[in-house]
UniProtKB/TrEMBL annotation:
Compartments (UniProt record): Endoplasmic reticulum membrane
Membrane topology term: Multi-pass membrane protein
Pfam family, one: Glyco_transf_22
Region Disordered, residue ranges: 1-30
Residue spans crossing the bilayer: 223-245, 265-287, 323-344, 356-379
Gene Ontology MF terms: alpha-1,2-mannosyltransferase activity
Listed EC numbers: 2.4.1.-
Functional note: Mannosyltransferase involved in glycosylphosphatidylinositol-anchor biosynthesis. Transfers the third mannose to Man2-GlcN-acyl-PI during GPI precursor assembly.
Protein name per the record: Mannosyltransferase
A single Gene Ontology CC term: endoplasmic reticulum membrane
Pathway linked to the protein: Glycolipid biosynthesis; glycosylphosphatidylinositol-anchor biosynthesis
Keyword Cytoplasm appears in the UniProt entry: no
Species whose genome carries this gene: Rhypophila decipiens
Length: 656
């Protein structure tokens, strides 16, 4: 490997064999800079390809906690963006969606100036967030490699092993280019860890330099603290990472050597923490003021609703060991054995590294254990919540992976006159390596292209249909009268579990009116109250079992009661004003051109509109369902309501 400068200060100085090693041949600084630039460029290209290849749906937060508020920022409150309850109650920081909102706005202005056709502009706007996120994903990979290089040295092959692990990890391929706040949090965290002044963990007996005395080291500290503060503002649980790092830095609990911290160093550290924290907080406050229209502090609201009001439980509860037996294995997949061994080795005293790198590794492993331990106490758990730990796990596992798949370097020469033998790396266990790579590639390919691809492609179908049927209503901004030239009352109705598809970020056009089942939490109820225990949102009520909905002996069905009583209820209209006037009963509510749902609801729709002839509740609505589109949605799904193909039915009530 090309050698360059930049290992942690004091690295290797207390090893007995260092005195017997010949001085390493220095590499020109321009070569080192070119290597760093080349790696970053390749990562940017790689993650761009990654972003374009990911065409599947994972979780709603990718769209509803980032792109929907971003769409409102770019195109205004009348743009049709779907803002969930968190934004109504200021639980989320606007910093994350502001990134995509500015990208939307700038791109729209440029394309409007260049007279792009609406169809091309809509395509670019749909792809744009993934392209922006690919830059953050590449930076996350880059800083993983750079931090590993700082720890193990630039002449070591271990940083390259860490880089290959992050590039070949299927979870990284599947999630790093998605617009989750967790994805940005991961990049901010590993970048902040890279710029953190790890010389604070040095052994004062080996390194005589007092930390944080140089302007360059203070500037790196400031950059680290600002990045860390933004990560905490995006996801308050990120605070556990920095509490762990600061705890070991100040207490040196379980670390080797004597602390180099002096009173002046601690004062500088605390001063910069306060200044940088207030700076990030001010930026966030201004952004939130511009977005919400009033001063707000989302971290407080987040804590209040999720802890005091226990609303996180509404979205599911997992056992305490979820992260141990599901979270970390899903993050690391085939690299799990190497990360577990690396995690164990970094906590032991058997490390061959010098004091400073060993202390850094020990701190990183302590951070992983603390974060997992604290989040395990929370009832609602998701793999994404520990995503920021993945780069650390790669760095910890890289030496173990390198040891297993390559031959070790030759022993150091034993005399000053002995010549250093060239380090030759030879692969071994090639079959195991090929199996790991094959599994990772297959997993990444299936998850990013095939698994739950239908929720994305159905919106492309609807958008293209709208472009075909209403070419005059494709403006993203209202006309001079504030109208969007809506072509009809309701273009699409989604009878799917809540947030089963993206929304305006893929539907694009404000005139394309759509309706979907909602799932707002019971924020109006008290924790532990009967009202909360019995609460059912729209999606729950639709899928609730109806016993004998038509008064017959047929098997129980779901959905018909919801359709007949809530979605299209009976409306009585009095004909005439005389005493002999009659009442006309008909069904109210908007009738869509298209109904979207998983194939399991086809029997429900047929029973409501057509089944039993005149006895069907919706027989007088003149609906004749015709299947016009369907797509496979993956080989498995843990939610029975989402199993099977995703289907679009034409109701037949509008002219083609």
């Amino acid at each position: 490997m090309v050698k360059d400068s930049g290992p942690l200060p004091g690295q290797g100085k207390n090893r007995k064999d260092d005195a017997t090693k010949p001085p390493p041949r220095e590499t020109h600084q321009e070569v080192l800079s070119a290597q760093v630039t080349d790696v970053l460029t390749l990562l940017l290209v790689f993650r761009f390809i990654n972003a374009i290849c990911v065409r599947t749906f994972f979780q709603p937060d990718e769209y509803f906690q980032a792109l929907e508020p971003a769409w409102k920022i770019a195109f205004g409150g009348e743009s049709g963006a779907w803002l969930t309850w968190e934004w109504d109650h200021q639980l989320r920081s606007s910093l994350h969606p502001a990134i995509f909102g500015l990208a939307y706005k700038a791109s729209h202005m440029l394309m409007r100036t260049l007279l792009f056709p609406p169809q091309l502009e809509s395509f670019i706007l749909v792809v744009l967030p993934k392209v922006v996120q690919s830059v953050f994903a590449a930076l996350g990979d880059f800083y993983t490699w750079r931090l590993a290089t700082s720890i193990y040295g630039q002449s070591s092959n271990v940083p390259w092993a860490a880089l290959w692990m992050t590039v070949l990890n299927p979870w990284q391929w599947y999630c790093s280019t998605r617009t989750f706040s967790n994805s940005l949090e991961t990049t901010l965290t590993i970048a902040a860890l890279y710029y953190w002044p790890w010389e604070l963990l040095a052994d004062a007996k080996v390194s005589k330099m007092v930390p944080l005395q140089l302007k360059s080291s203070i500037n790196r500290l400031r950059l680290s603290l600002v990045l860390a503060a933004v990560a905490v503002l995006l996801r308050p649980t990120n605070l556990f990472i920095w509490i762990s790092v600061l705890t070991l830095t100040l207490t040196r609990f379980t670390l080797d050597g004597q602390s180099p911290l002096q009173k002046s160093t601690i004062i500088v550290l605390l001063r910069e923490i306060i200044i940088c924290g207030l700076f990030a907080l001010a930026i966030s406050a201004i952004s939130d003021r511009l977005y919400f229209g009033f001063w707000a502090f989302p971290p407080y609201k987040w804590l209040y609703f999720n802890i005091s009001q226990s609303l996180a439980v509404f979205y599911g509860q997992m056992p305490w060991h979820y992260y141990l037996f599901q979270g970390i294995p899903l993050l690391t997949t085939t690299f799990l054995p190497f990360t577990l061994i690396g995690l164990y080795k970094s906590t032991s005293r058997s490390s061959s590294l010098s004091a400073l790198p060993s202390n850094v590794m020990h701190t990183l492993s302590f951070t992983v254990l603390t974060m997992v331990g604290m989040l395990s106490l929370v009832s609602h758990k998701e793999v994404r919540f520990i995503y920021p730990l993945l780069p650390i796990l790669h760095i910890l596992g890289a030496p173990r992976m390198l040891e297993f798949f390559t031959t070790g370097p030759p022993p150091p020469p034993k005399s000053k006159d002995a010549k250093a033998a060239p380090v030759k790396v030879t692969l071994r266990h090639k079959l195991s390596l090929a199996n790991i790579l094959s599994i990772n590639i297959l997993l990444a390919t299936y998850l990013s292209i095939f698994h739950q691809q239908a929720p994305i492609s159905v919106l492309h179908f609807l958008r293209h249909e709208f472009e075909r049927l209403h070419p005059e209503s494709l403006a993203l901004s209202p006309d001079i009268n504030g109208n969007h030239h809506v072509g009809e009352d309701l273009f699409a109705l989604f009878l799917t579990p809540c947030h089963s598809t993206p929304w305006r970020s893929h539907l694009v056009y404000p005139a394309l009116e759509a309706r979907a089942l909602t799932c707002e939490p019971p924020i109006h109820t008290e924790p532990g109250s009967p009202e909360r225990a019995n609460y059912m949102d729209e999606a729950d009520r639709f899928y609730a079992e109806d016993h004998n909905p038509n008064g017959g002996d047929e098997e129980p069905k779901y959905g018909i009661k919801f359709l007949s009583q809530e979605l299209w209820p009976i409306v009585e209209t009095r004909l005439g004003e005389s005493a002999n006037s009659t009442l006309r009963r008909s069904r109210g509510g908007k009738m869509p051109r298209y109904i979207v749902g998983f194939e399991g609801i086809e029997g429900v729709l047929t029973a409501f509109f057509e089944g039993g002839g005149k006895d069907a509740p919706g027989s007088d609505m003149n609906v004749r369902l015709t299947k016009v589109w369907s797509a496979w949605n993956g080989a498995f799904n843990e939610d029975w309501r989402r199993r099977g193909r995703l289907v679009v039915w034409d109701t037949g009530v509008y002219l083609p």
